[in-house]
Specification:
transmembrane
Length: about 260
Amino acid sequence: MPITANTLYRDSFNFFKNQLLSTLTLAVLAALVTTLLGHLFIPDSEQMKLLTEAEFTFATSGKAGIQELVSQMTPEQQSMIMRAGIGTIFSSMIGSVLLVGGVLTLVAAVSAGNRISSLQAIGLSASQLPKLFLLLLICTLLIQFGLMLMLVPGIILSIALALSPVIMTAERRGVFASMKISWKLAFANIRLLVPAILLWLTARLLLVFIIDRLTFIHSEMAGIILGVFNNLISAILLIYLYRLYMLIASPQQKSI
């Protein structure tokens, strides 16, 4: 019997509905971790004042361009910019790793007939989190690089690497082995992956647009709300990808 996208969508949403509390807990936890870690790297009020003064001085000088702005900053200001940038990436990656590891472990356990909580799911995935962090970091850098070149390469890489976290979690594969298998399986089942990835990207863009219009919400609260809903959207995609992989992964494919 052929696999259809409608069947997978229905199955994924049923799972999401039945495990809503656990999935929501993981989404909130990941968003809070991202926010808290982000605050550790955000410059304090005095440092922000220095950065603002540097930006104002640069703007009134009539120059343009990021390189010129950075070159006009003091070493302390450059260090703050670098720290904030690295901190933002690091905190976002940690939140993503907790979400991906927790959701995939939860799906695997429930599919096997075991009942576990969201915290147990994170605990069971702990041994995989370092490798998962490296995998997500590499995939994110590749996809962002593709998006910077042109939009299409980034979308293609998003589709090609979509199954790699599932493969790593389900099969205990290494980073590059998971990426290689994902590449082959993704293009062999592209009709089932493209709609899901495009829906995921569209939903995230719409969410950013909606949250940005809610000006009455404090910026920090808006950031947390955006993170939670983004995580819920990603959780639905992860459930879909796990279900898809379980259906398409034959013993021959697993031995690649």
